[in-house]
Give the backbone structure.
Amino acid sequence: MTEEILITHLEKINDNDPGERKAAIEELMFEDLDEKTLKVISEKIVDNDRGVRNAASALLISNENSAVPGFITPFIASSDIAARNLAGEILIQYGSTAVPSLLEFLPNGNDDDKKFVIDVLGLIGDEKAGEDILKEIDKTENENVLLACQEALGNIKYLPAVKKLLEQYPLNELYKPTIIESLGKIGSQEALDFMISIFNDEDDLTRFSLIESLGLIGDEKTFFFLLSQLNTASGPILYPIVTALNELKNKFGFDIPFDETMKNALLETVLDADDQYKEAAIHLASAFNDKDLLLACLKIYGKNLELDEIVKPKFMENPKIILKNISSYLKSNAANLNALLELLQELLQFEGDQIGDMLSILELRNLTDALTDGIEHPDEEVRRAAFEILYKLNIEMAVLFIDKVVEDDNMWNRLKLLELVVENNSDEVNEALNKLAEDADEFVSERAKEILTQRNNPNITN
């Protein structure tokens, strides 16, 4: 780009029309720009037009010129929150390149500016900022700045900060969760020993943070310490313990002892905790072939696809337990009814004729009863799946309910019926086919007629 053309673009960048300003910046997007031009464009992140601001931001981020952070950092002091946040986003994208200009700005800002700079430094995560942030702890009297320092030191994993963070810990209850989280991110034997030593003296909120950090930096001693906590823990504090044990198991390959305490902890977590904790509990439960744990997982199956993928292989390994108990879940009209029916279909497909050997006469009857209830369910997909499974499991019983499917108001369900009975030449099926040949839906009636024609003229092929 010639100097003359560049000057023209710079004039347009300062045009009164925001459309012209935006277009001029976008035309420079892939050009090799000098620092003077970049400084002009940097000033546009405080433009009163959002389109211009966004265009300037996109160009500055893509340019990667090391001078840009120096142009952008002063806008941290802007009274325009949008401009300040945009400056922060650009500086974070520049990463370590932005650290020198941020550190140079840090002593000069007010408390709000300092907190913002420290937050950005923490998100960048460069250890070079650690010493300056550590010094700021001793300088500041502002709690928000202090908390930002404590958090940022953890984010950059600044090992020399451990001593200072331990000194800060008893000074204010407000600091404790942040300091514990940062110690967990930094990781050191001193931090680990400290967290275990204070555990029994802290309230549940602080223990919650302690447990999460112990899961990150713990060792074999920590593993057995957390196992011992299961004896007395209950409710929400139980869930992070299970998660931390799973993390340590994965990290070190520890064996999880299976006793009533562990079983009850896993059951409670699977059934009552948030999904992030359920995931850890399901991973741990997968190490055991325990009926109660499998059925607890069955109860929540279908509510979260990621959790389903973890537990489903365990169901397939233990078909007998699932098949013997799934009928009670189907009868309860659970919210995960569709997922349970899909699982049942897969089990039937996988196990085939062996299912009859797995179930007693009473268990098989309970299962078929649950499926017949599903044929009248309000959900059309449940009705379709229930009849299909019943037909594959017990044709004679399914045929007894064929009229209900003939009268189903969902066209796809009636087509599924035709697909299932195409090889069945019983009187009941033929009667159903004759009814469906008169169906109001053309697809259904034509398919029924095709099947009837084939039966009456077996030499005709479709």
